[in-house]
């Protein structure tokens, strides 16, 4: 099981809802967490950084690897 942490702009509650909806569509996820105050999305499961980032790009969100940013 992988833990994917991404930096993504979560500007409002509607952004958070859209992100959660996009993540829920991914197969083989175990858990997910959207931290609006940190602009951080954490997903655990059988997913890659690329898969989660691609799902977020589909809704117009740019995502980058959390660890590469910090």
Automatic annotation (TrEMBL):
It comes from the Eukaryota. PANTHER family: COPPER TRANSPORT PROTEIN ATOX1-RELATED (PTHR22814), HEAVY METAL TRANSPORT_DETOXIFICATION SUPERFAMILY PROTEIN (PTHR22814:SF304). Keywords: Metal-binding. SUPFAM superfamilies: HMA, heavy metal-associated domain (SSF55008). This is HMA domain-containing protein. The keyword Manganese does not apply. One of its GO terms (molecular function) is metal ion binding. InterPro entries: HMA_dom (IPR006121), HMA_dom_sf (IPR036163). It comes from Spirodela intermedia (Intermediate duckweed). Pfam families: HMA. Residues 1-64 form the HMA domain.
């Amino acid at each position: 099981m992988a833990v994917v942490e991404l930096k993504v702009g979560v500007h409002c509650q509607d952004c958070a809802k859209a992100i959660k909806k996009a993540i829920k569509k991914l197969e083989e996820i175990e858990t997910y967490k959207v931290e609006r105050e940190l602009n951080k999305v954490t997903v655990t499961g059988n997913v890659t950084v690329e898969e989660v980032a691609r799902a977020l790009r589909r809704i117009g969100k740019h995502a980058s690897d959390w660890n590469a940013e910090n």
